[in-house]
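User: Teach me something about this protein's shape.
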Amino acid sequence: MQATEKTSLGQALTRYPDALDYLRRILRRLAAVAPVPDGGDVLDVGAAQGLFVAAAWALGYRAAGIEPYGPARELAARVGRKLGAEVELTAASAERLPFPDASFDLVLSTEVWEHADDPAAGTREAFRVLRPGGWFWLATTNALCPRQNEIAAFPAFSWYPLRLKRRIMRWAQARRPALIGHNDRPAIHWHTPGGWARMARDAGFATVYDRWDMRLPDEGGPAHAAALRLIRSCRLTRWLAFVVSEGTVLAARKG
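Assistant: First, the predicted structure itself:
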């Protein structure tokens, strides 16, 4: 979770149930292919207020997180104390993870890779710190979909040329910070789901799954299951589904 506007302890705690539900959903989806070991090691890259770290501890995993923003790390420690979880985040960046090789069974990052200085380097680092068979779960921007929540007042921003997107983000950072949630690291990386997948393969991941591969048929009613079958039926329907879906999800497994 990207740290943006100043968040209070109460606000962070109200988001904790959503973080817990989302982590449960991630683990359930991964388990359909290869489960994360019970009591395994989880790393949240860009952990913000430490909600996923706290959720991982609550579910019986050992968890760590990195977060470069000092106030967010301080708030995460308070969140951990309130929830009775070990939430001590390390000041570090995605491109230089302060952990040995093969330290984790799951590396996750949500709404961070679009803000990173070098997403490809961060992906290589995720690969490095994962154990064989470990998972990298990434939720980030989707350049195919016109809807996005990175900057207000710019319709269909995802479809703008990349150079223009970056100019607008830097202008907003300097002149209209409220448009980007007062984020001092605006989103400047926008790729298609296929582009993110190529980045993961280039980093060494053996198998890469997109959001439609990972979605489970029983997560909704009959209409959901039918829609999922249709989306998976051919490349065109999968592409159209990405066009109408804000953001993208990548699940990559280390061989």
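Now, about its shape. Residues 9-253 form a domain with the Rossmann fold fold (CATH 3.40.50.150). The chain is about 40% helix and 15% strand. If you'd like, I can walk through any region in more detail.
User: That's plenty for now, thanks!
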